Fold:
Amino acid sequence: MNKQKKNIVIVEDDRVLRELSQMALSLEGNQVEVFENGRDGINYLKQHLAEVDLLLLDLFMPVLDGVHVLNWLREEQQSKLPVVVMTAMGDKLTEQNILSAGADKVIKKPLDMDKLITSINGFLDK
Structure:
């Protein structure tokens, strides 16, 4: 595995999940920034997009949801930033729609931290 420190942004409204994900990814040697809604995530990305290696994005959040963030990133910014979407929606249609909107991977909640780290490391090692 490439041990170079990577910059990861987590946008997740659930405080416990946000903190657990941040802790797990930080322990892997990554720099992790966290935001509780899409608006705050976009505001950060507007200033730091070129420095970010991966976005971990919740789908359903108050203020601004993950679909809006993903659309902003792919359509307005034309960014190829890897995006892993987290959702409790387990149906195939939702997953297909998220992938069609530009997500690179969909991970279902509740999160298994080992699977999350393995998935994210797969993108970061490319």
Q: What stands out?
A: The mean pLDDT is 93. The domain at 7-124 is CATH 3.40.50.2300 (Rossmann fold). Residues 82 and 123 are 7 Å apart (CA to CA). The longest strand covers residues 7-11.
